[in-house]
Every structure is written in structure tokens, then in C-alpha cells.
Amino acid sequence: MTNSSTPRSNFWFVWRAPIILAILTVFGLLAALLKTGAWHWAAWLALAVPIVAGLWFSFKRSKK
Questions:
Q1: pLDDT in tens, 1-47
Q2: Are 24 and 17 in contact (CB under 8 A)?
Q3: Which residue from 28, 35, 31, 30 is spatially nearest to 50, judged by alpha carbons?
Q4: pTM
């Protein structure tokens, strides 16, 4: 039986979003450096997601 408080589930609960944001950032940086054309738009979008997420959570938290 799986308990919801196992260390594995806590790990993914805490680190899922930062890992996804890190992968998007690395993808965006590599796409901007190595590719041209539509890849620049993909890089721009991938690099904008962490910024938007950070701003959204900072404004959401400041309203409390």
C-alpha cells in the first residue's frame, strides 16, 4: 500500500515545479543559442514561462 506521506511523494510534491521550470529554462537557452527562425520564438516562450510564474506567485503572495 502506498502512503501519501512517503518521502517519494513528498519529493515530487516539492520539486516538480522547480524541475519543470529548470528544464524549460535550459531548453530556452539552448534553443536561443543553437537554432534560428521559429526556435527563437520557442526560446522566448520557454524563457518567459519562469518569469511569468515568478511574477504571478509574487503578486499572489503579496495580496495576503
A1: 455 566 667 888 999 999 999 999 999 999 999 989 999 999 999 99
A2: no
A3: 28
A4: 0.73
